[in-house]
């Protein structure tokens, strides 16, 4: 399966990023998480540092476009094969940066992709 980084992970159970971690783990996807606060969700450690994360296939974004700006270079440096822009994270500026670095973009909902077998 596609090793996935949930970018913008939350410890709050009512957040979509939290639900995504649960669903990714339940689907057998190797899952990592990055967020503002460290903690654990569904056995996945949420880290507030990106320096030890590597070999990522997919980044699924859960932070708004304004907050994404400070992470542009870090996302490119992680060199994922694709970045999923979940609802509310759409960002044409980042689309262009990723495309220029040969990183596929997908404007979709990770939860829907998982539930329909399209992940």
Automatic annotation (TrEMBL):
<protein>
    <recommendedName>
        <fullName>CoA-binding domain-containing protein</fullName>
    </recommendedName>
</protein>
<feature type="domain" description="CoA-binding">
    <location>
        <begin position="2"/>
        <end position="113"/>
    </location>
</feature>
<dbReference type="InterPro" id="IPR003781">
    <property type="entry name" value="CoA-bd"/>
</dbReference>
<dbReference type="Pfam" id="PF13380">
    <property type="entry name" value="CoA_binding_2"/>
</dbReference>
<dbReference type="InterPro" id="IPR036291">
    <property type="entry name" value="NAD(P)-bd_dom_sf"/>
</dbReference>
């Amino acid at each position: 399966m596609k090793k996935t980084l949930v970018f913008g992970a939350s410890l709050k159970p009512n957040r979509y990023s939290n639900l995504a971690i649960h669903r990714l783990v339940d689907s057998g996807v190797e899952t990592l998480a990055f967020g503002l606060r460290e903690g654990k969700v569904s056995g996945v450690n949420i880290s507030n540092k990106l320096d030890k994360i590597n070999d990522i296939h997919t980044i699924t974004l859960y932070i708004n476009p304004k907050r994404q700006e400070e992470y542009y270079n870090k996302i490119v440096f992680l060199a994922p094969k694709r970045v999923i822009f979940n609802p509310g994270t759409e960002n044409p500026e980042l689309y262009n940066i990723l495309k220029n670095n040969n990183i596929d973009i997908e404007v979709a909902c990770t939860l829907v992709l998982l539930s329909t077998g399209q992940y």
